[in-house]
Amino acid sequence: MYGGIFMNYVFYSINIIMPIVLVVILGYILKKVSIIDDNFINRSSIIIFKLALPITLFNSMANRSIQLSRDTEFFSFIVFGAVGLISSFIILEFLSRIYIKDKKVRGAFVQGAFRSNYIIIGYPILKSLYGDSIIIEIALLAVLAIPIFNIFSIITLTINSQENIESNKVLLFTNMLKNPMIIGIVLGFLVSSLQIKIPVFLSGTFNIISGLTTPLALICIGALFTFKSFEQEIRPVCVAALFKTILFPLLFTLTAHFIGISGSKLAAIFIVFATPTATSSFIMAKQFNSDSNMAANIVILSTLVSGITIFVGITILRMLSWI
After folding, report:
1. Which of 25, 186, 223, 318 holds its CA 20 to 30 A away from the CA of 169?
2. In the chain, what are the domains?
């Protein structure tokens, strides 16, 4: 009896995770057989981050009636998400200063273990778990997470690349204000709150564009995989992936549960910490003259490991009836 129940939870998690993993593998194969190339990946990334993903977030928010709960759990969820992300950065920055002497390695390590691919990987997982009912949690956590990831990534890369922090302040805040994902979420909130009716033809157009987001993004992630130079700096790469995919999800999910966060909100907390390192961390590392090779390897390893850890995490959380 118990074996059958356990297998039900296992198959439930497989059905959530495997489609994402298989599309990532497809991206790797397409690049390997030269059906797609670096130019395709670069152009597709622009379409995803500047068009498809912002429209997806806008469309999801605009088509929902937004009624923010004022109960204690909802408040705890919002505050805990922000405090947890900032705490993870402080922990990494503190430990890296003790154990990593090379500043370029330190910056890439901290960003890699801290910055999450929450929207690209997390959005389809959470939507598979809860459908459109979790859109508010996804969006609110994204509004918090995106600026936090951007601000603290720039801080660690600037400090550890010996750049002048003052010279990057304007860049930091202008990039935040111009972030297409934040713009999409905010506009969606406004349209929903003001009960603005979107014309049917526009809504249909947005739905078609939104359909591009997840498959195109996952194909690009798979296509970025390269297993060269993994031997170099393998220890910090493995430690960063360990923090990103196991230690932080375990620490912050347990803490969230014990302060009373549950259901879809706990699932969102788990996913924001358990999703692999954002591919944009590689680009950021390059821009700040950090160790971009190590940054790329952290993305690869954390993505591979997270396919297992997210599957295991969802299975356990469902068995415990926490989500």
Report:
1. 186
2. 2-319 (1.20.1530.20)
